[in-house]
Amino acid sequence: MSVIIKTPEEIEKMRELGRLAAEALDYIEDFVKPGVTTNEINQLIHDYHVNVQGGYPAPLYYGDPPFPKSCCTSVNHVICHGIPDDKPLKNGDILNIDVTIKKDGFHGDSSRMYAVGNISAVAKRLIDTTHASMMAGISVVRPGATLGDIGYACQQVAENAGYSVVQEFCGHGIGRRFHEDPQVVHYGRKGQGLKLQSGMIFTIEPMINQGKRHLKILSDGWTVVTKDRSLSAQWEHEVLVTDTGYEILTISPKYGKP
C-alpha cells in the first residue's frame, strides 16, 4: 500500500480544497426543498465550483463508465453514487450530496445528509447515528493508531443502534489524485491494518443502512441501492493525521462544526 505522506505545502493546499468543498455544501443547503430536482442541485453545484470557486467538479466524466454529472445525489434507499435526474424531491426524503472539487491540481471531497422538508423521527435517527459513526471513527485518528481502529469505532456506533455497515464501499486517501491509498473501511478490529502516520490525508465516510447491509448496483453502473430498499445515510469528512491527533479539513465554514 503506497500511501502518500503530504508535505507542509501540500497540506496547506488540501486545507484550502477541503474548505472549498465544505463551502459548496453550505451553499447548496438553502436549495434543498420539496419540488427541487437533483439535476437542478447538480447544476448549482457545477456553477458554484466553476464560476465562484474557480475549480472543476472532479466527478464529471470520472471513471468507467464516465460519471455523467458534477456531484452525487443519493436519495432515501440509494447508498451512494446516485446520479442527479429530473425527479422532484418530496417532503420527507433524505438526501446525501457528495461533492469533490479539483483546483490547482488538488482535490477536496466531502458529503452531507440533508432533510427535505419534514422528515420522520426514524429517518432523523439514522442520519444522526451515521454522523456519530463517522465522528467516532475520526476521534481515534492519531499517529500509531490503525485503520482497524477507525473501522471498529464506526461499526460499534452503527451496530449498537441496530443498523448495518456497508462493506463494499469505503473511504480513501486523497490529494493530487481523487482516490489514493489507503482504503478506509468502516468496519474492522482494533489494532489491525495499516498504522497511521502524520501527514496522511484520507476520507472517513461510513454508509449506514437501516436494514441489512446488502446492496445492488443499478444498470447505469454507478447507482448503489440497498437490496431490501431500506433507508441509507452517509456523511464524509476529509481528515489529516497530525503529530498529536487529527484535523478535519472539511468543517462547515457556516456552522463552524463538523
Automatic annotation (TrEMBL):
Binding-site list for a divalent metal cation 2: D109, H172, E205, E236
Key words, A-Z: Aminopeptidase, Hydrolase, Metal-binding, Protease
Catalytic activity: Release of N-terminal amino acids, preferentially methionine, from peptides and arylamides
Entry cofactors: Co(2+); Zn(2+); Mn(2+); Fe(2+)
Residue numbers binding substrate: H81, H179
Keyword ATP-binding: no
GO cellular component: a single term: cytosol
Peptidase M24 domain span: 12-243
Binding site for a divalent metal cation 1: D98, D109, E236
PROSITE patterns, per the entry: MAP_1
Cofactor: how bound: Binds 2 divalent metal cations per subunit. Has a high-affinity and a low affinity metal-binding site. The true nature of the physiological cofactor is under debate. The enzyme is active with cobalt, zinc, manganese or divalent iron ions. Most likely, methionine aminopeptidases function as mononuclear Fe(2+)-metalloproteases under physiological conditions, and the catalytically relevant metal-binding site has been assigned to the histidine-containing high-affinity site.
HAMAP family assigned to the protein according to its UniProt record, in alphabetical order: MetAP_1
Subunit structure: Monomer.
Family of the protein in this entry: Belongs to the peptidase M24A family. Methionine aminopeptidase type 1 subfamily.
Biological role: Removes the N-terminal methionine from nascent proteins. The N-terminal methionine is often cleaved when the second residue in the primary sequence is small and uncharged (Met-Ala-, Cys, Gly, Pro, Ser, Thr, or Val). Requires deformylation of the N(alpha)-formylated initiator methionine before it can be hydrolyzed.
Protein name: Methionine aminopeptidase
Organism of derivation: Conchiformibius steedae
Organism placement in taxonomy: Bacteria, Pseudomonadati, Pseudomonadota, Betaproteobacteria, Neisseriales
